[in-house]
């Protein structure tokens, strides 16, 4: 759908066609003078073209956005819940220089992660 200003379109047609047709500036949708029939029909079609109020389009789009936002929030929450259910539990196994994930044996020097950067296991308990 393409929104436009139909009154401006009519004015443009009248201005352009008025230069080459007689009395085109005296457009009256109830009177179609001889010789200007096609132009008058075009202007009449424009007058009777279906229109849509911009406010109703904006309201409809806002409702669509609200619905999409609610659905997106639900999907994100559901995805996070499912990921948490599937996420393995692990712990950091430390020696004096490195830490190793108890799930996938990923080795790091930082044990402050709440999860393993390699396998995503949630780390529980105290870090040794």
Computed Rg: 35 Å
- How would you classify the helix and strand content by structural class? mainly alpha
Q: Helical residue percent?
A: 40-55%
Q: Based on CA inertia axes, which overall geometry fits?
A: rod-shaped
How many β-strand runs? 5
Strand order of the largest sheet: 2-3-4
Average predicted local confidence, pLDDT: 77
| Major sheet size, sense and barrel closure | 3 strands, antiparallel
Low-pLDDT ranges: none
The helix-strand sequence is: HHHEEEEE
- The tally of helices reads 3
Task: Give the termini separation.
Answer: 64 Å
Percent of residues in β-strands: 5-15%
How would you sum up this structure, described in words?
- The structure is a single chain.
- The chain is built from three helices and five strands; from the N terminus they run αααβββββ.
- It has 128 residues and is mainly α.
- Among the domains are: 6-47, no CATH class; 88-128, no CATH class.
- The strands form two sheets. The chain has a three-stranded antiparallel β-sheet, with no helix packed on it. A two-stranded parallel ribbon has the order 1-5.
- A hairpin with a 5-residue loop joins strand 3 and strand 4 (107-108).
- The relative contact order is 0.09.
- The model has no long low-confidence stretch (mean pLDDT 77).
Task: Write a short abstract of this structure.
This protein is mainly alpha-helical. It has helices at residues 6-18, 37-47, 54-86, and strands spanning 89-90, 92-94, 99-101, 107-108, 122-123.
